[in-house]
Write a structure and sequence with these properties.
By secondary structure, the protein is an alpha/beta fold. It is about 40% helix and about 25% strand. Strands 1, 2, 3, 4, 5, 6, 7 and 8 form an 8-stranded mixed sheet that branches. α1 packs across α3, α1 packs across α7 and α8 packs across α9. Bound molecules: S-adenosylmethionine. The site of S-adenosylmethionine (SAM) has 22 residues, from loops.
Length: about 280
């Protein structure tokens, strides 16, 4: 039975606004790995990519210039609803579907991506499905980012305090993080057995994105653990968010915390695996 944690429309909407997309350099590393075994056509395009556990399209949209068609699938109808609202590209489409049964033909896909979601899947079933849909030489890429971001602002002391506040919030929700998936993600998938033998791992890819107090707040409230708290104990959840706002007022030295601007750094990791030619 798959774990379903991103079902509500409010959660999906917050998620769409606050979660980072992977940096272009990470997508570049995936395309280089793919190209080294399976070059694109003369227009620089590969036929088909699938982004599984696509959420609201954080990765799906980044592949629009490299594939003739990209399908984003997710088990949550609310997430796919958000992805469809943001989709203006004719070669991108989305479908509600579990990663364990992908609605595509055998050997029809050049690249499968799974960002920040592999730890929720039934791996055995998913790998069987990967092997079925990937063309020989096709690539599976899975990646994620650390839940405790390193935050930069021009002021190094507020940077440290903002990072500490995220960590404090994460620990406060300790009992509500789905396990063992969350610890596995936090370990950057240490010990993960990839589906094929030709593999490549990049352990750290840093990216810095412009952030606001609003996004910072939304990032924390988009966590599955916070959404669990909201469901189980709304009063405690309100105290939790009031406390974030109060602490932000002190750290950012303003009452208008949601408008404050700073830079926010995420640390991504990437694992890739290529299906053999024969
Ligand atoms: C943390 S979000 C990641 C979304 C997006 N890929 C990103 O990078 O932000 C995890 C997503 O995986 C989806 N998910 C969890 N289990 C799934 C499964 N078995 N099949 C497909 N999607 C699944 C959830 O609905 C959720 O949207």
């Amino acid at each position: 039975m798959p774990i379903q944690l991103f079902e509500s429309e409010t959660h999906a909407s917050t998620y769409a606004q606050a979660r980072p997309s992977p940096p272009q350099s990470l997508i570049g590393s995936i395309l280089s790995f793919l190209e080294s075994g399976f070059p694109p056509d003369t227009n620089g395009l590969w036929p088909q990519a699938v982004d599984v556990g696509a959420g609201s399209g954080q990765t799906t949209f980044l592949m629009k210039d490299h594939f003739k068609h990209i399908l984003g699938i997710d088990i949550s109808a609310a997430q796919i609803g958000e992805a469809n609202k943001r989709n203006i590209y004719p070669n991108v489409s989305f479908k509600v579907s579990p990663a364990e049964t992908i609605p595509l033909e055998n050997e029809s896909v050049s690249l499968v991506t799974a960002s920040q979601c592999l730890h929720w899947f039934d791996l055995e079933k998913f790998y069987t499905e990967l092997n079925r849909i990937l063309v020989p030489g096709g690539v599976f890429a899975t990646f994620g980012y650390l839940p405790v971001p390193i935050i930069s602002t021009d002021d190094s002391s507020s940077k440290n305090k903002l990072a500490q506040l995220v960590e404090k919030c994460r620990l406060e929700l300790s009992d509500l993080w789905e396990q063992p998936g969350t610890d596995f993600l936090n370990s950057k998938y240490t010990g993960l057995k990839l589906p094929f033998n030709d593999n490549h791992k990049i352990n750290t890819i840093k990216c810095s994105v412009p952030y606001s107090g609003q996004k910072y707040f939304d990032y924390i409230t988009s966590w599955s653990a916070y959404n669990e708290l909201m469901e189980k104990n709304p009063e405690k959840a309100k105290k939790f968010t009031d406390n974030i706002v109060n602490q932000l007022k002190v750290i950012l030295e303003t009452d208008d915390v949601f408008s404050a601007q700073f830079h926010h750094e995420f640390e991504f990791f990437l694992l890739m695996s290529r299906k053999p030619e024969n």
